[in-house]
Design goal:
about 90 residues, mainly alpha, 3 helices
């Protein structure tokens, strides 16, 4: 596993990228057990990361105009991500 949210939470990820709780090793952890809702949200983040890898792999085949349009289109996602991160960080303090 890499530095994904699932790895940080001490969960195993199956080969299809979904959390596999049936194979989770029991470990002593300072973290509270993950709820079903948290696991579902972390799966969304894994989906986002997979999508970004797909986009990155096709950038070399795009024209300059396509890159520009995609960049502008993805700008709204960046704004949304920043807002969510701010809300998460604020609630931790």
């Amino acid at each position: 596993m890499d530095g994904s949210f699932a790895a940080v939470a001490g969960l195993r990820v199956s080969t299809v990228g979904r959390l596999d709780l049936s194979r989770t090793r029991k470990r002593r952890s300072l973290h509270m057990p993950a709820t079903g809702e948290l696991i579902r949200l972390m799966n969304y983040v894994d989906d986002i990361n997979a999508t970004l890898r797909k986009i990155t792999s096709t950038i070399g085949t795009m024209t300059d105009e396509e890159r520009k349009r995609l960049s502008v289109y993805m700008g709204s996602a960046v704004t949304g991500l920043k807002e969510v991160l701010q809300q998460l960080e604020k609630s931790v303090r």
